[in-house]
Specification:
The protein is built from six helices and seven strands, in the order ααααββββαβαββ. The protein is of the alpha+beta class.
Length: 244
């Protein structure tokens, strides 16, 4: 994890952590005006990031103590120059554990999926199963597609869905994750497929926090409506390509 990412998480976490360290019963806090709602939204964002570390009560208490000492001007109980690099090590180690767990779950899900009737796997590792075969045009990598999609983690948690928004989306096929670029070229207009996309064809070990953990295998139900040529269209939020 990059230093900037670690620093951002710690700065954000400090606000929420100081509240807890002061003994505030958060369930009794009333969220009333726009300022309250803005800060509440910040808290939701903080919690989503901290959740990835899976801190236990003892670890949270140590974090809170350090935050309280720093915010009140007390002398740190540890040599900061020595422990600053260890902060990065902790984040890296915790994130790697998440990756290993997600990859194991993904492998198990993939193996089970491939036992289903009609399920196949490509040389790249992409698994797919036709729900309904189309009869129209098959897209090429440089073309634009209009689709409905429903994306979940292997445990069924929905991270994004144009179906739930009740609005199709169009995007260039060469500007999304590898699993989509490859998978939709197997389809024809009017078809609907289920794709099981391993992490290396999706968001890799970095994931797409907070909704998609590092190492996560993704499951998509995709319905292809139309294939067109022309100008670039908006990229689907759940399946946009990783920045290089």
């Amino acid at each position: 994890m990059k230093i900037k990412q670690v620093t951002s998480l710690l700065v954000l976490a400090s606000v929420m952590s100081i509240l807890f360290s002061c003994g505030v019963d958060v369930e009794k806090v009333k969220v009333e005006d726009e300022n309250d709602k803005t800060l509440y939204a910040m808290g939701v964002m903080l919690g989503s990031n901290l959740q990835r570390l899976e801190l236990n009560d003892k670890e949270l208490n140590a974090l809170f103590k350090g935050l309280k000492h720093a915010s009140t001007g007390k002398q740190p109980e540890v040599e900061m120059a020595m422990y600053q690099p260890k902060i990065q090590d902790l984040f890296r180690d915790r994130m790697q554990k998440v990756v290993e767990v997600e990859k194991k779950k993904g492998d198990e899900f993939m193996a089970k999926f491939l036992k289903e009737e009609g399920a196949k796997k490509t040389a790249s590792g992409l698994a797919y199963k036709p729900i309904k075969e189309g009869t129209g045009k098959a897209p090429k990598e440089e073309e634009t597609v209009e689709v409905h999609y429903h994306g979940t983690l292997t445990d069924g948690t929905v991270f994004d869905s144009s179906v739930e928004r009740n609005k199709t989306i169009s995007f260039p096929l060469n500007r999304v994750i590898k699993g989509w670029t490859e998978g939709l070229q197997l389809m024809k207009e009017g078809g609907k497929y289920r794709f099981v996309i391993p992490a290396d064809l999706a968001y890799g070990e970095a994931g797409a926090p907070p909704k998609i953990p590092g190492g996560a295998t993704l499951v998509f139900d995709v319905e292809l409506f139309k294939v067109t040529k022309g100008e670039a269209a908006p990229t689907a939020p759940a399946v946009k390509a990783k920045k290089k």
